[in-house]
Design a protein that fits this description.
This protein is α+β, with helices and mostly antiparallel strands. It has 7 helices and 12 strands. Among the domains are: 2-216, Porin; 363-479, 60s Ribosomal Protein L30, Chain: A (2-Layer Sandwich). The protein is elongated and about 130 Å long.
Amino acid sequence: MRNLNRLVLALLLMVSFSNVNAQDENNPWAISFGVNAVDVFPVGEDAPQGDYFQEFYNVEDHWSILPSLSTVSVSKYLKDGFSVEVRGSINKITKYGQIDGVNESVKVNDLQYYALDGNVRYHFSELLSKLTKNSTFDPTLGIGGGYTWIEEGPYNSNGAGGAKELVGAGTLNGSVGLNINFSDNLGLSLESKYKHAFEDYLPSHFQHTAAITVKFGGADADGDGVYDKHDACPEVAGLAEFNGCPDSDGDGIEDSKDTCPNEAGLAEFNGCPDTDMDGVSDNNDACPTVKGLKSLAGCPDADKDGVADKDDKCVDVAGPAANNGCPWPDADNDSVLDKDDKCPNVAGTVANNGCPEAVLPTTEVIEKLNSYAKTILFTSGKASFQKATFPVLQSITAILKEYPDANFTIGGHTDSVGSETLNQRLSDTRANAVMGYLVENGISAARLKAIGFGESNPIDSNKTSKGRRNNRRVEVKLVK
């Protein structure tokens, strides 16, 4: 009895210290009163104990049950399905397993049993309620630890000697349980807990409990007559028809669903008014005192150009939104708006983005350029010009200057004498030499591109000296 008093005192102390925590859920506290059974047999140890879960439901041969109030627990719900529990238990061990080949259980002489355990449990009730729309059943899983004392007997001894002494050890506990809710405040709790002892002299064992659970802690914090568990607005007094939520402006729409909770309005506008009666609620109406268009957030559009008058810099003349409701200007009157006109101060053509059409060389001019280009002479095997070539280059430069809007490619070609790699390199350097001369003499490099073709594009046979001479050439082509 002295040990039981100590157990009850410890539980009361724990409850007292727990009360400093704020209540954050409806009925967070629970006290359970019930009976417990201890089974030391199906724990995977040597005889007289048996294998794990062997004869797990053999109540008659292996369960030691104290047929009176023998377990008390206090628990508190935390959040997200988790709760903590402190449980105290007493019992008398009368059955200690059985010997192989003997059907009778091993009897011991009413060994006193005391336990104090702490447990963290996860409740599946919320998940189950979502799946079945029923909150009657609440399966749980738990893990925790504690300390258990069993009176010393023939199979549990720490070697200290002395009959009737209690031997105790810490345990690691794992549990599975089921709470059956009769109401918001009353239920039945069933649990099976495996307790693994940290000392050899204390047997690992299962403890099964059945208890009546009383839940409490619910309140009506805002005093509106709606119980907090069912109050959607538990901190603000409200109306029962709105699950405890208020309707401040009295428009029949609860504040939580009312976009304008302090101003009476219409249900079609989520509780907001429509002062100018234009079909746009005031909270969305950019011009709430003037009747306007829904497409312009309730604002008018005098010139019907799709730009609200408040944003239109040309209210009486239609214009695009991109120009603030004003028409686009066309300063040079070439039918190309200034915003698109690349030459806004000079009349041009639509096809040339408002600029005058570029003057390009004719076919005859290109042929003349190439007749000059074919007479460009290089030092044999090199990219340096022979002296007689400079007048030709000057003539090409003069023609290119006559067409400042035209772009050209300068192609270098060789005959097939020598290796293909060498000829490719030679054609590159010669084409770039011609381009370099033109740039040095006033032609923009942006208008020119030099390309070496090597021996890949002959215009005559490489089997004769005349043909090879024709293949050694520079070509000028217009880029269109």
